[in-house]
């Protein structure tokens, strides 16, 4: 239920000054510019080397692994904390139609609702590691989709789609956790969605319609090409030669 505005009142333990808020916006702006540059760089790479999106997906992750070496102690501590979490127990709300009450029931290793292999995994694996694997799988699906899109679309389209995707994720997260949106943030969201819709209409509706109209206007079976016959220059039109004598 926190207010997401920079001037919202906060407790002394979680204060956010205007300076910190401005620095956060600056980081987002720099990241946005770098993302746009990377989109153009990837587009040029595809056009120059005819590379596959799988190659880009592999090398961009494989070559960045050494950058995590300085964070090895931190990663080990975080993994140890995740490995120390208890097994996952999913809570189901079972509604009693007679009393109108809802009882919380745990799905554990003894639940017949799950396959044996899944029950064994839930009973042995720490919940933190399962969440880590789930997060990695969803990240893989997301970055794979981005690479497929970048291989088939322009860098501008990829950047706009990613902006809308980030905004949708942010709004969904804020709605799920009960945050309140200030008017300026709602205006910014409207600008992002409106700009994306305008770009989508321009590239998917107006430009193709204009192209089809041009093809229909010139598509009456007339094919004109230059011809050279009998020492005169002319145009071949529907198989006929209309010579224009050189003067």
From TrEMBL:
Keyword presence, Transmembrane: yes
Annotated compartments: Endomembrane system
Protein's membrane topology: Multi-pass membrane protein
Transmembrane segments: 21-41, 121-143, 183-201
Region (Disordered): 213-247
Biased composition regions of type Basic and acidic residues, renumbered to the chain: 213-229
Key words, A-Z: Membrane, Sugar transport, Transmembrane, Transmembrane helix, Transport
Presence of keyword Magnesium: no
Name this protein carries in UniProt: Golgi uridine diphosphate-N- acetylglucosamine transporter
Species of origin: Cryomyces antarcticus
GN (gene name): YEA4_1
């Amino acid at each position: 239920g926190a207010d997401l505005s920079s001037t919202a009142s906060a407790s002394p333990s979680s204060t956010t000054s205007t300076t910190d808020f401005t620095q956060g916006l600056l980081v987002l702006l720099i990241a946005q510019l770098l993302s746009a540059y990377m989109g153009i760089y990837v587009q040029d790479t595809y056009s120059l080397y005819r590379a596959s999106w799988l190659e880009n997906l592999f090398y961009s992750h494989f070559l960045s692994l050494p950058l995590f070496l300085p964070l090895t102690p931190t990663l080990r501590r975080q993994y140890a904390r995740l490995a120390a979490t208890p097994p996952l127990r999913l809570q189901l709300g079972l509604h009693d139609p007679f009393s109108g009450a809802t009882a919380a029931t745990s799905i554990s290793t003894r639940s017949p609702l799950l396959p044996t292999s899944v029950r064994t995994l839930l009973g042995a694996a720490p919940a933190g590691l399962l969440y880590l694997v789930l997060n990695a799988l969803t990240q893989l699906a997301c970055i794979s989709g981005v690479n497929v899109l970048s291989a088939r679309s322009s860098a501008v389209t990829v950047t706009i789609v990613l902006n809308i995707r980030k905004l949708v994720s942010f709004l969904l997260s804020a709605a799920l956790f009960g945050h309140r949106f200030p008017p300026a943030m709602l205006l910014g969201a409207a600008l992002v969605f409106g700009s994306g819709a305008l770009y989508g209409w321009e590239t998917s509706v107006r430009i193709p319609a204009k192209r089809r109209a041009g093809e229909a206007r010139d598509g009456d079976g007339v094919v004109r090409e230059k011809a050279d016959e009998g020492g005169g220059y002319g145009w071949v039109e529907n198989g006929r030669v209309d010579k224009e004598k050189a003067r």
